[in-house]
Amino acid sequence: MRSEARGRHLLVNVLALGFALALVASPSLVPPCGHGSAMAPMRCHWTFQVELLLAGTAVLTAISLWIVRQQQARTVVGFALVGLGGLVVAVSQQWVVGLCGNSAMACHQTAHWLWLWAGLLAVVGVGVGLRGRGPAGRSDARDPWEEQQESAGAA
User: Fold this and answer.
1) Please, are residues 35 and 45 in contact by the beta-carbon 8 Å criterion?
2) Do residues 129 and 84 make contact, with C-beta atoms less than 8 angstroms apart?
3) Which tens digit of pLDDT belongs to each residue from 90-135?
4) 53 pLDDT more than 90
5) Which residues are within 8 A (CB) of 85 and not within 5 positions of it... i.e. 6 or more apart?
6) Alpha-carbon separation of residue 72 from 26, 86, 126 (angstroms)
7) DSSP sequence for 51-63
8) Residue range 5-25, pLDDT digits in tens
9) Domain residues of the chain, as ranges?
10) Using an 8 Å Cβ cutoff, are 51 and 27 in contact?
């Protein structure tokens, strides 16, 4: 791999991991609403519990970019990041779990930060997923399985 391509991979890996870690850190840095009464936590409490799970998954997925080398695997990881970014945004919508009804509540400020990081993570994921794709969605890299089958058929 050329050093220029290696540098691009490093930049993308760092960006993906940074945005995923920002998803994890945002509820601590910009705290959402309190837990409500002891009997019934507020709706946003459950939203941010799910958000933390999704953010942790995004961190692990971003770390996998450091491990995988094949373009097809990086494509799958990139689109997984897009999906996780979309899920982070979707969970805070009223039709999934939602936030508190009053838009002046602190959970709305936290959600805006999460939406920012999730959107940036999705953009990086699209970049990873589409990198190396040729016309008509075909990969520029050859599939090792196809090469093995061709060499076995020629023998």
Assistant:
1) yes
2) no
3) 998 888 888 787 788 888 888 889 999 999 999 999 999 887 554 4
4) yes
5) 58, 118, 119, 121, 122, 125
6) 31, 21, 13
7) HHHHHHHHHHHHH
8) 666 778 889 999 999 999 999
9) 3-154
10) yes
| 143-152 own/partner pairs: CB under 8 Å, 24+ apart | 143/72, 144/70
Tokens 């940074």 correspond to: 18
Residue type, 104: A
Tell me how far apart the alpha carbons of residues 133 and 137 are, in angstroms, rounded to a whole number: 6
DSSP conformation class of 142: P
Question: What does the block give as tokens for 80?
Answer: 């997984």
Q: How far apart are CA 140 and CA 138, in angstroms?
A: 6
Does the pTM exceed 0.85?
no
Please say whether the beta carbons of 114 and 93 come within 8 A.
no
C-alpha span between 122 and 87 (Å, rounded): 10
Lookup: tokens for 155: 């023998």
Output the six-digit token pair for 78: 């990139």
Pick the closest to residue 109 from 118, 121, 100 (CA basis): 100
